[in-house]
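Section 3.1: Structural characterization of target chains.
Under the original work plan, the team committed to producing a structural model for every single-chain target entering the pipeline before any wet-lab resources were allocated. The record below documents one such target. The sequence was received from the expression subgroup and is listed exactly as submitted; it comprises 124 residues.
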Amino acid sequence: MKRILIAAWLCVVPTAYAGSDSIDWHEKYKLLKATYLIYSGEPDERAAPTRTDRKIAIIVEGDAAREVFESLYPDAKGVTCTTEQGERLRRKGDVWCSYRPSDGYRCFMGFNLRNGQPHSGASC
């Protein structure tokens, strides 16, 4: 009886997963418009990189920034970096993005190059 149940399970489970969209998903890498800065210190008090303190700040713009922005919903409430009307901010962990009518979507992220830990990469 156990053999019949195991055989049935082995036939049913692969079939169930065969129709899964995640298995058939084949997205390709897209071009990325980004700039970066290697520095030491904190994002709001940057200095020249040193042998023991090297961080990278990355700014992503354009379509990629819009796609990341849309993934980080909802908008932050009561938080702004400028006085520009229509500014929107979104953040999850150390990834944050802004939308401003004057310059579009921009996302900020960074990493400590000495220990690999993520950080925000920028401050308002």
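The first helix runs from residue 2 to 18.
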